[in-house]
């Protein structure tokens, strides 16, 4: 009788292990079913030049890989191999939303380095590329609102420099923006999503002595601001 009980218990334990193992395997597969190659990360280095600190990322996501990777190559190739250029990237997964953010620094002029950003957003459930407008809609923002907040931030910077005679009081705010190569906000704003928080990033170099105006962390040498921008 005891032997039968032991056998039944062993069969139940084995069955339980099989069920649990299958469940874990299924969960893992469901979590990674957007990957083309499950043995690789969702983003990996496609090209790396350690001499110039340059890297081109490759996106490993079904259905969108060709579109995104062709766009990445088109964006980055003109800068690769130049000794004035450094590149970097990071990516984040927030729920079902994937964001890849690329930043390029081109220090080829006497004034300040030029910065160039490129971002990609993907809905991992639908395997669909999202636009910046899609991302803004998720956070109930319009780009005009972001531009207004950035303008207010820069006006504080401008007014403080005028008050301290860092710049002439005769310089208008518009001319001040032109001094920093800011002509059209829409052309220089990019969007990143980190820990489910929305950030507006601008292609603009902020010198160390001016960092107190811009409280968010660096992305390369450009800066990003958590939205809403205060």
Which spans of ≥5 residues are poorly predicted at pLDDT below 50?
18-30, 214-221
Order of helices and strands: HEEHEEEEHHHHEEEE
Mean pLDDT: 81
Helicity range: 25-40%
What class, by secondary structure content?
alpha+beta
The shape, in one word, is: flat
In what range is the share of β-strand residues?
A: 25-35%
Short structural description:
By secondary structure, the protein is α+β, with helices and mostly antiparallel strands.
Entry keywords:
230 residues, alpha+beta, Heat Shock Protein 90, 3 domains, four-stranded antiparallel sheet, flat
Question: Overview of this structure, please?
Answer:
This protein has 230 residues and is an alpha+beta fold. The chain folds into 3 domains: 31 residues; 86 residues, Heat Shock Protein 90, CATH 3.30.565.40; 91 residues, no CATH class. 35% of the residues lie in helices and 28% in strands. The strands form 3 sheets. A 4-stranded antiparallel beta sheet has the order 3-4-5-6. Strands 7-8-10-9 form a 4-stranded antiparallel beta sheet. It has a two-stranded antiparallel sheet with strand order 1-2. Strand 7 and strand 8 form a beta hairpin. About 9% of the residues have low confidence.
Task: Please write out the topology.
Elements: H1 2-31, E1 43-49, E2 54-59, H2 65-76, E3 85-94, E4 97-106, E5 114-123, E6 128-130, H3 132-138, H4 143-163, H5 173-179, H6 185-188, E7 189-194, E8 197-202, E9 218-219, E10 222-226
